[in-house]
Write a structure and sequence with these properties.
Rossmann fold, three-stranded mixed sheet
Length: about 325
């Protein structure tokens, strides 16, 4: 007879028992504590488990955050990065953060794009809103859509150009990272600036990052840069959790035809080539841009929509990857 512990996780292809999931079963009632948030997957898991066991079950899915590599009360740091600008990295970062929150995790987002911060606008934070500072040192994060947030855009206006040299920008990142009172977080999503420069090195050297998500588009030049980004993170021993391909296709509003305007399958090829999962293929959709520009990103503006479902699936998958690697790795935490 099949056991619940022998059920294969849909993202990792390993059994819940091998992954260390905590299972309690009494008759047809089953409770499982997974190492990734999965509120939006509960019904599907219940159906799959019933098919696996060959019997009806009532499944309760809980989230047991894996011990992390982070700092203070932040368990895991997730960097969302691209080696090329203009691929939708910041939009992806904020929607992944909102998706993790919607799935049941405690989440913060740090806008590490010192020169071009955009998270304040995307989250609908008024331009004149400033974070409170306690004891001249501790910064209170600004809450938006259920997230704890910090961004350089909270410190300056849109009309203030940042003309700092690299060390100054790195210092600003370090200050926002370590002096913000994040409280208890399961995941801190870091929206990285494009490229492979000082900010990326600062984060990799000063903070134990659990993993990075690479954002790309199907164009050949973007894929070339994505390879560079992946290799950069590997050189500094940060696991790559997967690839998100933006602008993968466009669906005609009138006839429903799907067009691959910028090429097809590039994100999947690079993910397969480098041995990482393709977390999502997201459409070229005017609504995604308009929702972010209006201060209500897609996962907040249309939580039951198809695009939000893609973000939530990607968020569960990347969190599952963190759970899998955490089970086999020693815990190393950053000191304040």
């Amino acid at each position: 007879m099949s056991r619940v512990e022998d059920f294969q996780d849909p993202y990792l292809g390993r059994t819940w028992g091998a992954l260390g999931a905590r299972v309690q079963a009494s008759g047809r009632d089953v409770r499982v504590a997974l190492g990734y948030p999965a509120e939006g997957l509960a019904a599907e898991l219940e159906s799959r488990l019933a098919e696996f066991l060959g019997a009806e079950v009532s499944l309760e899915v809980q989230f047991a955050p894996p011990e992390g590599r982070g700092f203070a009360q932040v368990r895991h740091i997730v960097a969302v990065a691209s080696a090329k600008g203009g691929v939708g990295k910041s939009t992806t970062a904020v929607n992944l953060a909102l998706a993790l929150n919607a799935e049941g995790a405690r989440v913060g987002i740090l806008d590490a794009d010192i020169y071009g911060p955009s998270q304040g606008m995307m989250l609908g934070v008024p331009e004149d809103r400033r974070p409170e500072v306690r004891d001249e040192r501790v910064i209170e994060p600004i809450k938006a859509h259920g997230l704890k947030t910090m961004s350089m855009s909270y410190m300056v206006t849109e009309r203030t150009p940042m003309v700092w040299r690299g060390p100054m920008a790195s210092g600003a990142l370090q200050q926002m990272l370590t002096q913000t009172d994040w409280g208890e977080l399961d995941y801190l999503v870091v929206d990285m600036p494009p490229g492979t420069g000082d900010i990326q090195l600062t984060l990799s050297q000063r903070a134990p990052v659990s993993g990075a998500v690479i954002v790309t588009t199907p164009q050949d030049i973007a894929l070339l840069d994505a390879r560079k980004g992946i290799e950069m993170f590997r050189k500094v021993d940060i696991p790559v959790l997967g690839v998100v391909e933006n602008m993968s296709f466009h669906i005609c509003e009138k006839c429903g035809h799907r067009s691959h305007l910028f090429g097809e399958g590039g994100g999947r090829r690079i993910a397969d080539e480098l041995g990482v999962p393709l977390l999502a293929e997201l459409p070229l959709d005017l609504g995604i841009r308009m929702q972010a520009d209006s201060g209500r990103p897609t996962v907040a503006a249309a939580p039951e929509g198809e695009v939000a479902a893609l973000y939530r699936n990607a968020a569960r998958h990347l969190a599952a990857r963190i759970w899998e690697q955490n089970a086999a790795a020693p815990v190393i935490r950053m000191t304040d």
